[in-house]
Amino acid sequence: MKRYLFIISRAPYGSNHAFEQLEAAMVAAAFDGEVHILLRDEAVWCLQVEQNGAAVAQKTLSKVLSALPSFEIEQLHACERSVTSRGVGVSPEISVGLLNLTQQTQLIGESDIVIGGQS
Amino acid sequence: MKYAVAIHGAPYSSQAAEHAVEFMEALFASGHTVERVFFFHEGAYHGLNGQVPPQTQHNTDLRPRWAALKNQGVELGICISSGIKRGVIDASEQQRYELPSLTLANDFQLVGLGQLIAAIEASDRYIEFPA
């Protein structure tokens, strides 16, 4: 099986993009793929503590992220610079590793398939 | 080589599909094959059957080129999750949700997200055309 990296760069709730990418990642994991997810740019807001997606009639993305291990997705990463520059308060329920740019380059290089879908 | 292709951009607001079609035509001309085209996110709009290409632009009608790809054995799969919420409806979904009309174009079919992963697994290369 291949090693997948799903990169999410868009903010939560402004579009369905983040959630749809997470759905695709879950399907890849269900196919026994090794799945990594990288949140960067505005997508790091998905990690913010005390979200309430119900206020905009959507699923709360921080809860979806905290449930990833139950979908066999253990590798959630976020861009360290994106998190710190925005002052994102990461939810303690989410297990996420912060990567610098060099580490992100390495992660992309080690992946067989990179799915981004955004420009 | 065998390719899996994903298109994420909507027709006429993104060049994703034009680039993808030209890329696939070049692939076939070079002896490669395409396992499946997967239309994801806004790309699902390519499956609507009521599109009228802009008259003011040249060579923008993708419909005959989709048909040509289909005739070469390429499956044109619209993500069912992306599609039905945007009004891209086949006969089965029309019946299921009791909708007034069927809107899926002839050369396309609604498929699950699993078909994207299955196509990637069956291919040597995956390439996506973002919005």
Account of the 3D structure:
The complex is a heterodimer of chains A (119) and B (131). With 119 residues, chain A is α/β, with parallel strands linked by helices. Chain A has one domain: DsrEFH-like (Hypothetical Protein Ychn, Chain: A, 3-Layer(aba) Sandwich). Helix content of chain A is 31%, strand content 19%. Chain A contains four helices and five strands. Chain A has helices at residues 17-30, 61-66, 80-86, 101-110; strands at 3-8, 34-39, 75-79, 97-99, 113-115. Chain A is globular. The model of chain A has no long low-confidence stretch (mean pLDDT 94). In chain B, 34% of the residues lie in helices and 20% in strands. Chain B is globular. Chain B has helices at residues 16-29, 63-71, 80-84, 91-97, 114-122; strands at residues 2-7, 33-39, 75-79, 109-111, 125-129. In chain B, strand 2 (33-39), helix 2 and strand 3 (75-79) form a beta-alpha-beta unit. Chain B is built from five helices and five strands, in the order βαβαβααβαβ. Chain B has one domain (2-129): 3-Layer(aba) Sandwich (Hypothetical Protein Ychn, Chain: A). Chain B has 131 residues and is of the alpha/beta class. Chain B starts with a strand and ends with a strand. The model of chain B has no long low-confidence stretch (mean pLDDT 94). The chains are: A alpha/beta (119), B alpha/beta (131). Chains A and B meet through helix 1 of A and helix 5 of B.
Short key terms for the protein model shown above:
heterodimer, A: 119 residues, alpha/beta, Hypothetical Protein Ychn, Chain: A, 4 helices, B: 131 residues, 5-stranded parallel β-sheet, 5 helices, 20% strand
Which stretches of chain A of 5+ consecutive residues score pLDDT under 50?
none
What share of the residues of chain B does DSSP label as strand, in percent?
15-25%
Compute the number of helices of chain A. Answer: 4
CATH superfamily of chain A: DsrEFH-like
* Helix proportion range of chain A: 25-40%
- Count of individual domains of chain B: 1
Overall shape of chain A: it is: globular
Radius of gyration of chain A: 13 Å
Oligomer: heterodimer
Any idea of the CATH class of chain A? Alpha Beta
Tell me the CATH superfamily of chain B.
Answer: DsrEFH-like
Q: Low-confidence parts of chain B, pLDDT < 50 over ≥5 residues?
A: none
As for the CATH topology of chain B, it is Hypothetical Protein Ychn, Chain: A
Helix content of chain B: 25-40%
- Sheet with the most strands, sense and barrel status of chain A: 5 strands, parallel
Task: Please provide the count of β strands of chain B.
Answer: 5
Pattern of helices and strands of chain B: EHEHEHHEHE
User: Mean pLDDT score of chain A, rounded?
Assistant: 94
For the biggest β-sheet of chain B, the strand order reads: 4-3-2-1-5
Number of domains as seen in the coordinates of chain A: 1
